[in-house]
Design brief:
By secondary structure, this protein is α/β, with parallel strands linked by helices. The protein has 9 helices and 9 strands. Helix 3 (64-77) runs parallel beside helix 5 (119-125) and helix 4 crosses helix 6 (141-152). The protein is elongated, with a radius of gyration of 22 Å. It binds S-adenosylmethionine.
Length: 234
């Protein structure tokens, strides 16, 4: 999978791939990253990429011309590239989106800066738009990395143990049960005793109970979804 980051600040992005799982994914040729800087496409003699908002309003807006030309050049090289704009006003990105996007061959993330991107660019080029939550970041780079990371771990071979994917939170409406590591007793706090007895069917049913408790506490709406789903399955 190829990821292209369309950004004025690729140096904010590339550090993330210099260690751990995504670095190994690059080393194994499972993913690759590159960048496109709209500033390099600006026809303004000072390579400006932003201007004041038409109709007034605070702050600067990213101009259409550098982005149109950058994205045209990207599409000339790969007409099938899937172009994703990051914007706080879009539909929230979910695990289902991550799994679906992991089947693409080439995704380009377009990061806004300042007060955002001229809407005409989004209308003309977006295959999809995503928000990563109801808050405002200074730019789209972090949001692009969030989506890229979540997509990458769903690409075959990226995670050492692909079993971890199937039991994770958001695979079903229930959140994952609490996990414990060694030692079994740490500072006088133990782990649930059932976990120690090796009876896998009992451990599974305890984990289900704990998943339900956790979901009820943190995400009650998800528990409702789980109950509706299981009542249909009966
Ligand atoms: N003025 C815009 C608004 O109120 O909707 C916010 C612009 S924000 C300061 C600049 C850029 O950061 C956006 O164009 C987008 O690319 C990115 N961004 C900020 N928050 C985001 C979020 N929650 N999800 C995805 N992208 C976000």
């Amino acid at each position: 999978m190829q990821f292209t980051f369309v950004t004025l600040f690729f140096n904010l992005v590339e550090g993330y791939f210099q260690d751990s799982i995504l670095k190994r994914a690059i080393d194994k040729n499972l993913i690759s990253i590159d960048s496109l800087d709209p500033r390099e496409f600006s026809t303004n003699k000072h390579h400006k990429v932003d201007d004041t908002a038409v109709g007034g309003g605070a702050g600067m807006v990213m101009n259409p011309q550098p982005l149109y030309d950058a994205l045209d050049s990207l599409k000339e090289k790969d007409e099938h590239v899937h172009i994703v704009f990051m914007t706080p006003v879009a539909k929230p990105f979910t695990q289902n989106d991550a799994k679906r996007l992991a089947k693409k061959e080439h995704i380009a993330f377009v990061s806004g800066r300042y007060e955002g991107i001229d809407e005409r660019v989004i209308e003309a080029y977006a295959d999809e738009v995503f928000s990563i939550g109801d808050y405002i970041l200074t730019g789209g780079e972090l949001a692009s990395l969030v989506v890229c990371d979540a997509v990458s771990r769903n690409i075959q071979g990226v995670l050492g143990n692909s079993d971890s994917l199937s039991v994770e939170s958001f695979e079903t409406p229930l959140l994952e049960a609490p996990a414990f590591s060694k030692p079994k007793n740490f500072r006088n706090i133990g782990v649930p005793s059932e976990y120690l007895k090796g009876n896998h069917s009992k451990i599974r049913s305890l984990k289900l109970e704990l998943s339900e408790c956790k979901t009820k506490y943190f995400r009650p709406e998800q528990l409702l979804k789980h109950r509706i789903r299981t009542s249909y399955e009966k």
